[in-house]
Every structure is written in C-alpha cells, then in structure tokens.
Specification:
8 strands; about 45% helix; four-stranded parallel beta sheet; Rossmann fold; 9 helices; alpha/beta
Length: about 270
C-alpha cells in the first residue's frame, strides 16, 4: 500500500504534534501502516497555512497540528473544512476544557513548553554530560553522575543514557569488555546509583548479527557475534556486577522508556 503522509504543522517547532502522531502510528503493524512525516514548523501566517493545505491536497495527507494563535488556528480549520481534508487538532480540545474549567484565558503564546527555565538548562547540561562521558571515555565523570549504567555491547546503554538525559538526569555508561579493566572509580561510588544491564544471550546474538549484516563485507560469524565470545562477555559482566552488588535490569524485549522508568522509580526521581 502507499505511504500514509502525515503533515506535522505547528507555530512552534512541532515536537508535541510529531510525538503524538508517532505514538498513534506505533499502534499499527508497520507493514500495513507505512508512513512519512512532513514537518512544517513555525506556522506564523495565513500564507504558511495555505502551503500546508496545498501539500495536503496534493498528497492526500493527514494534517496533525498544534496551533496556539487563535487567528491562525481559525484559518486552518476553515481551510481544512473548505477542502474536506483529514486533520487532528492536538492542543485545541484540551485548551478549551482547561479554559472552561479554570475560567482563565490562555497565554496564546507558541513554544511555552520550551521556555528557558531551570529544567531546560538541567536537561541541556545532562545531554552534554552524556555525550562527553559516553562509552566510559573518562572515568572522572563517575562521581558526578546521577546514574551509572554497566553492560556488554548492544544492551542499549547509550540510547538509555540519552533518554535519561532528556529527563535532566546525568547518566554515564561503562562498557564491560573482558580485555579492558573497569575503572577503579566504579568501586568508590554509591552502588545504589549503578545499574547492570543484562539481556537474553540468544537475542543478543541476533542483534549483533543484524548489526554486522549492515556492513555487507563483514561476515556475521566473526567473533563479535559468536556464541563463545558472547558467553565470555556474559561471564565477565556477571562477575563485575556481582562484585559491585548493584541492581540489574533485564532489557530483553524491553523498550528504552520502560527501562528508564524502572531506574527513575528506583532512585525516586519521579517524585
């Protein structure tokens, strides 16, 4: 079937609308719901709206929008109705309910959720921290970290660090490789902020083979994806994690968000 085209239109960067759209698409079989996102941020004029409408007409796209300014939103609605287009207003219904509930007029200012407040700067700081100390680049970052992740290759350490960073949590990851000694600083920090990531060996073998297959000239049976090598890494990681006495999390078939939630709840960061 043809790709479903989804236009993400916003008078800010469009992050909220796209997240909602992606969440909706994720609920369908990807083979049956092939899709393409077309992002149109900073919709500030009627001309911008006209451009979105024209593209939607030409491509039979669904318009998913977050428009805060009343005059722009009203114009979008009128054009959508005029051309009988498919659309979803993400913010409008909730804002109307809130306005009626608290009897107060909204600010009608785009991008309010991205204001440069303390939480924003904390998030940026955490992201820079995760990049700087990724893959155990510098063990000096261990005492400064809120969370330390341990695991062998392909246990989602880096993406998990970046997800946590977007929540304002400073996370550092240390790869566990038999040939490389773990930093001594690891034994000097609070074990309660250390998390060992484990995974089903069979799934790990498949993940590594698929990764190697992306590099067409590299055979998938090399040591990196070999049974003996993986079991050796598992044995080494298990010894380190036991020695530290830290909490372990099995990431097998687990989404990054789910693993992060376990960590956040364990540390009480969700309060």
């Amino acid at each position: 079937m043809d790709n479903i085209k989804i236009i993400v239109a916003s008078d800010s960067i469009g992050e909220t609308a796209e997240l909602v759209a992606r969440a909706g698409v994720s609920q369908f079989n990807p083979k049956q719901c092939k899709h393409e996102f077309l992002r149109y941020p900073y919709i500030e004029s009627f001309e911008n709206v006209d451009e979105v409408i024209q593209v939607a007409k030409d491509t039979n796209a669904i318009i998913v929008y977050t428009l805060i300014k009343p005059e722009i939103k009203k114009y979008m609605i009128s054009k959508v109705n005029e051309h009988a287009l498919k659309s979803v207003d993400i913010m409008g219904p909730l804002m109307e309910l809130l306005s009626n509930s608290i009897e107060e007029t909204p600010y009608y200012e785009p991008g309010m959720v991205h204001r440069l407040d303390d939480a924003y700067f904390k998030k940026i700081d955490a992201i820079e921290f995760a990049v700087k100390y990724d893959d155990g680049k510098d063990p000096k970052g261990l005492p400064k970290a809120d969370i330390v992740l341990l695991g062998i290759s392909r246990t989602s350490k880096t993406p998990l660090c970046m997800y946590l960073a977007n929540r304002g949590i400073k996370a550092i990851n240390i790869p566990l490789v038999p040939e490389v000694e773990v930093p001594k600083e690891l034994y000097e920090i609070d074990k309660h902020k250390i998390f060992g990531l484990t995974i089903n060996p069979l799934q790990l073998i498949e993940i590594r083979k698929r990764r190697l297959d992306k590099f067409h000239r590299i055979p998938s049976n090399i040591e990196y994806a070999g049974d003996a090598r993986i079991l050796e890494e598992f044995d080494f990681a298990d010894k380190i994690i036991r020695r530290l006495g830290c909490k372990t999390i099995d990431v097998t078939q687990r989404a990054i968000e789910d693993t992060a939630l376990i960590i956040i709840k364990t540390l009480g960061c969700d309060k």
